[in-house]
Structure formats: C-alpha cells, structure tokens
Design brief:
By secondary structure, this protein is of the alpha/beta class. It has three domains: about 60 residues, Winged helix-like DNA-binding domain superfamily/Winged helix DNA-binding domain (Arc Repressor Mutant, subunit A, Orthogonal Bundle); about 120 residues, Response regulator (Rossmann fold, 3-Layer(aba) Sandwich); about 120 residues, Rossmann fold (3-Layer(aba) Sandwich). About 35% of the residues lie in helices and about 20% in strands. It contains twelve helices and 14 strands. The strands form three sheets. It has a six-stranded parallel β-sheet. The chain has a six-stranded mixed β-sheet with strand order 9-8-10-11-12-14, with helices on both faces. A two-stranded antiparallel ribbon has the order 1-2. Strand 11, helix 11 and strand 12 form a beta-alpha-beta unit. The chain is elongated, with a radius of gyration of 26 Å.
C-alpha cells in the first residue's frame, strides 16, 4: 500500500494531497515517529510532479513540526500530532515574571491549532544568530525580541519578511517589520514628569542602568528629564561603590537590583518611602506587597501578548506602541 496518493482533476492542489496523505497515514498508524518518508525524487517520479511541488508539501509538514529533514538522509516523522496547523518561533531575551505574563497572554489568545515554541538568546548575539539560522524554514511565523543587541537586522534578514514580528524594543533598523513595542524614551520621560512634584522632596534622583541589558531609550528619556528636572540626576551602573544617602530616590530597572537596594536600606536602617524613595520598572504582583508597595513604571504585558496574537491571526502589518502606566505607591 502506498503511503502517498496523488490524483489528477479532483480540485485539490497536488502538494496538499501529499500533505493529506501523510496526515492520513499518521492517523491510521501506518507512519510513526522516526519513520522515513519516501524521497522527494521517488514521489516526483511516481506521480510525474515537479520537484517544487513535492518540496512545497514537505516544507509545509516541516513548518508544522510533523517532519524534520536530516542532511544526506531525507525526511523523517518528528511528531505524530497532525492537529498543529501552524507553528510560531518565539525568541525572548530572557524569562522573568512579566514576560511570563506576556507569553501566557500570547499563547492563550491564539487559535487551538497554532503551536508556539519559545527560545532565549540571553543577550548573546551568537546565540541569537544561531537560533534564527536553525529555525529557518521550520515555522510559519517568527516573533523576535531583539533587546539591545547590535546588528540583528542582518540576521533577521534571512527570514521571510512577511512572517516576522518584532517585540518589545524596536530599533530603527527594524522598523520595516510589523511590531508591538514599548517607547522607552517617551515612557520614562512622561512618567517622571507626572511625578515631578513628588520627586522634589528628594535631593537627588539616581538611575541604576546597565548598558548590556537595558533599553537605550530608558537612558535617553532619563537624560531628557534631567535637563528639566529641579533636582540633580545621576546615572550609576552598580551599587558596589555607591553610598546610599537619605533624601535620594532610586529608579531601579530590574528585580534583582531592587532586592539588593531594599536589603541595603534595611542594613542601613533606612525606611523605603521615608528616608529613600524607590521607583521600579515593570509591574509584578510582588511589587504590590514589598515594603508596603513599590511605585512602578510599566507597560501592560498581558495586553502586549493579546495584541500580538491578534496581529498574527488577522495578518496585521503595523507598528503598535503598547500602553504605559504609572502606579504610585508608598515607596515614593
């Protein structure tokens, strides 16, 4: 019995008949994970097809994760799950609480037949490049978080342009791609302007900023605020050589350094919100509770994930700026 069947004059494209044949063989138990498919040449010759037609079918099965190609050996069954109609390559910089919210909102708002595979580049250009190169041809859509890596456009350029979406940071080199992103420069400046009066009770505003991981727009927005602020502003890269003084207010961008700061204040017997002000970036449940509540500048990550899913489902090709919110709590 032949695994693949292709008929003339039945109104179904021949590449789709090949795909359906493989699906039917999997459903009937005639093909199992690890089984080898007939070669492209054998299918082409048996049914008098063009090589492109057979390749189109095999590539569709590959994008859905049903088959995989092994160099020099052929195509093999990778998964027996034929319910996956599309696959999404999702590349994050790292995983944390708010990006988990983004991921869950994205996955939960996609159709049932769409499968998401998530990867992390951990701010490494080499890892970023290899993951994208290895993903080529295996997915229907590519959602990429470039972070502040330099030269990502050269790597992303190998992907099909109409299948790429940019997430979170949008450098000018990638503005030709559809995106849902944060305007870090504007968000920081506008948020600090909103609490300008509260900041005046302190004698210095200090930003803890890492050039390696943090968006450059945050630094730029802070510097713009410093030009109009009525208190001195300072940028530091670490707490190691910093002497924390009463009357300072700190803008801390990641949770690890937020914990370090709170620990130092306890050791110095200083009270958050009274002796030293604290502003954090990116809202989490923990910040509602710690020290009576930490003031937070944040985007809505759940909305970002939901909107990204809508863009893919509706094939929208826009650059969308995600909303910002400022949550004022006891720490300020």
């Amino acid at each position: 019995m032949s695994l693949i069947s292709v008929k003339d004059h039945i109104g179904i494209p021949k590449y789709k008949q090949i795909v359906s044949s493989v699906e039917d063989a999997l459903a009937a138990g005639l093909l199992k994970k690890g089984d080898r498919l007939p070669s492209i040449n054998s299918v082409r010759n048996k049914f008098d097809l063009s090589r492109d037609t057979v390749m189109m079918a095999f590539n569709e099965l590959k994008r859905r994760g049903i088959v995989e190609s092994v160099s020099g050996k052929g195509y093999y069954i990778k998964s027996e799950n034929i319910n996956v109609s599309q696959k999404v390559f999702l590349l994050f910089d790292e995983l944390n609480a708010f990006k988990e919210d983004l991921y869950n909102a994205f996955v939960n708002n996609l159709d049932e037949g769409i499968q998401v595979e998530i990867f992390f580049h951990h701010f490494s250009y080499e890892v970023f490049s290899k993951l994208i190169q290895d993903s080529l041809g295996s997915y229907h859509y590519y959602v990429i978080m470039p972070a502040n890596l330099i030269g990502t456009e050269a790597v992303i350029d190998i992907l099909p342009e109409d299948k790429v979406y940019i997430l979170d940071q949008l450098p000018k080199e990638l503005r030709s791609y559809p995106s849902i992103h944060q305007n870090f420069e504007k968000d920081i400046f506008d948020s600090l302007m909103e609490i300008k009066e509260q900041l005046q009770k302190y004698h210095k505003l200090v930003l803890l900023y890492s050039e390696t991981k943090q968006p450059k727009g945050i630094l730029k927005g802070f510097q713009e605020f410093a030009e109009v602020a009525e208190i001195p502003c300072e940028v530091i890269q670490t707490f190691e050589k910093k002497t924390i003084e009463r009357g300072e207010v700190y803008l801390v961008l990641d949770d690890q350094h937020l914990i370090v700061l709170i620990k130092k204040l306890k050791e110095l017997q200083m009270e958050v919100g009274k002796d030293v002000g604290v502003i954090s970036y990116n809202e989490t449940l923990l910040k509602e509770i710690v020290e009576g509540g930490i003031t937070t500048i944040s985007t809505d990550f759940k909305e970002m994930g939901k909107r990204l899913a809508e863009m893919i489902l509706k094939n929208e090709k826009e650059n969308i700026e995600n909303t910002r919110r400022l949550i004022i709590r006891k720490s300020l």
